[in-house]
Amino acid sequence: MTADLLSFKLQALADPTRRAMLARLRQGEATVNELAAPFAISLPAVSKHIKVMEQAGLITRSRSAQQRPCQLSPDGLREVDEWLKAYRDVWIDRLDRLENYLDRIKE
Question: How far is Cα 68 from Cα 101, in angstroms, rounded to an integer?
Fold first, then answer.
């Protein structure tokens, strides 16, 4: 993955409204109106959020009659997770070493 695409994904995830929409999509696909329901923002604003998430590869849209429901992209967050894994591994190692140190000084 290029750094630009990673930056775009992280920028898309930085917005709390988009993160809430992604959380809703964990339950299954949703229409624009369903994604908009919890927010006091206009439908055009919701559409812009959806467009950003779609361009970042976090969601996909299908066609169902007159609607275009959104769903999570299977690979959308995998790339972000892979990037974060290196940092997660560092912190796990550091916390393990701290735990070992604390165990030693307890004795």
Answer: 55
